From TrEMBL:
The keyword Oxidoreductase applies. Residues 15-174 form the 6-phosphogluconate dehydrogenase NADP-binding domain. Residues 177-296 form the 3-hydroxyisobutyrate dehydrogenase-like NAD-binding domain. It comes from the Bacteria. It holds the Pfam family NAD_binding_11. The active site is at K183. It comes from Peribacillus faecalis. Belongs to the HIBADH-related family. One of its GO terms (molecular function) is NADP binding. This is NAD(P)-dependent oxidoreductase. Keywords: NAD, Oxidoreductase. Gene3D superfamilies: N-(1-d-carboxylethyl)-l-norvaline Dehydrogenase, domain 2, NAD(P)-binding Rossmann-like Domain.
Amino acid sequence: MKKNEIEVEYMSKQTVGFIGIGVMGKSMASHIMKAGYPLVVYTRTKEKAMELLDEGANWADSPKQLAEQADIVISMVGYPHDVEEIYLGENGIITNGRAGLYIIDMTTSKPSLAIKLHNEGKEKGIYVLDAPVSGGDIGAKNAKLAIMVGGDEEVFNNMKPLLEVMGENIIYQGKAGSGQHTKMCNQIVIASNMIGVCEAIVYAEKAGLEPNKVLESISTGAAASWSLSNLAPRILNEDYSPGFFIKHFVKDMQIALEEAEAMDMETPGLSLSKKMYETLNEQGEGNSGTQALYKYWK
C-alpha cells in the first residue's frame, strides 16, 4: 500500500465535524461524508442540515459538543465574529478543546484572527489551519475548489488528503494567516474583474449586440476569466442566485482594504468595487450573488 493510500485509510477512520451548512458548506460536507468520513454537523439553522442528517450525518447541539465528537473540525461560516465565537467563545472549540484536535477554518476571515487561532490552539496542543477557498457554489458542488492554506506545513501535509476531497488546486502558502492573505489577493482580483464583466454586458446591450454571441467571442481570448465564463451567463439568464453572497463579498473587501491600509498600499480598484457593492447591499441585494452587480447599471 502506498503512503498516500495509508494516509487516506487512516484519515477515513477519523470523525470530521463540519460547522456551517450554507451555499458552499453543504456540498463540501457532503463530499466528506461520501468519501467515507464519519460526519458530525452543526449550524445555527438545523433545517439546513436535514439532507445531510438524512444521509447519515450526526447532529451536534453546539460547537463544543461537535468538538467532543470529532477528530477534525472544519468551519465555513459567514463573518470573522462568527469564527471567533465558534472557536474562542464560552462554548468554543479551542476554549474547550482537547490536545490533538485538528481545526481547519475555511471561512474567508481576517489574517490576524487566523494567527490568533493558531497561537491559542498551539498552547493547548490543538493544530489550526486557515484554509479559505475560491470557486463558489460550482466549485463546491464539483469538488474543484481552490484551497489556499496557512499554518504549520506538517499539519497541512497531514490534512491534505481530506482537503483533496473538497478541492483540486490545494496550495500551502506559508505560516498562519498566509491562507487568508492569499484569499485577499483572490478577492482583489475578483472585485475589479466583476466590474469589467458587468460593464461589458451593459455595453454590448447598448450597442445593439447579442450578448451571448459577444461572450462566445471574448470568453476564450485575453479577456477570459472564471467570472466571465461562469457568472456572465447567469446575468444573461437573469439568475442572481448566490454562488457567493454580496453581503459576504462586502465583508471580504473591507478586510482586504484594512490589510492594504496597514501595509500603506493604495487599492483604487478594490475601493471602487466595494463602494458599488455597498450601494447594492443597501438596496436589499445582500443575499444575491456577486453577479447582481449588473443591477448597478439598471
